[in-house]
# Entry
Amino acid sequence: MRRAFSDTLLKIAEKNDKIVFLTGDLGYKVFDDFIAKFPGRYINTGVAEAQLINTAVGLALEGYRPIAYSIAPFATARPFEQIRFGVAYHKLPVMIVGAGGGFTYAKSGVTHHAPDDLALLGILPDMTIVSPGGPDELRMLMPELLKLKGPSYLRVGKYGEPELNHPSPVELGKGRCLRAGKRIAIITSGDIVCDIYPKMNIFLSAGLDPALYHFHTIKPVDRSIFPEIEKNCSTAVIVEESIPQGGIYREICEWKAETNSKLKILRSGAPDAFILGSPSREELRTRLGLTAAALKDLCLQEFRIAK
# Structure
């Protein structure tokens, strides 16, 4: 997904001379083509994330379209005050890019974990938040974010994520139904969908027929799909690398409370706790039940279907 980001950045910058790319001493080699072609529109602020955001604010006030890029916890938690008062308060068209959201950098420990990035920036007014499922979604959504008049946050993965390759349209602010089903709906956000969608046969072979919905836009979330889910299913399972206070889980729980919905909501996601040690992302996803096999077992347990 990171390669898709750098390629899309280059294409957009070729058409828009107001695009300025800022980084906090990251992205070497990934952005070499951009630096070579647009040296005057590349700014490395060094390991100084507050200054990274402040510089983006100044550029936006002068009519530019700054894109501020860093590792997700350093792009969101560390300069949160600057984002809140510099970007969000002034409703500036700054795109903040968090590389390695969720537990992409699981082995690097708590300092590099970012299961709270969506929750942090989600509380800011007028902040549009997107967590693409794959490189194809990123390529289609990033240009749309740069058309917005206000701030946005783009969570991107690392390298090697597969294309989602689904025929349903990819539109900013719209959820996607990747598979129709009954009784239970699996709801994803972010790149975890690329692990679930290709393995739907695991559910079918166990006698399950789940629907699969994917939300790349976290804020504003497409609540118009929630009644459709309730109509066709009695249970929804939220699967995301985000703490309970952020992401799709929070959104659907709010909708359920506001509408007195009878939809039962289950969750597989990041806990409201620090993850200690240095597990790999794969180990951590297994531990947290963020795999197709674990979701199948959860669905079987919910409906008491014999294995």
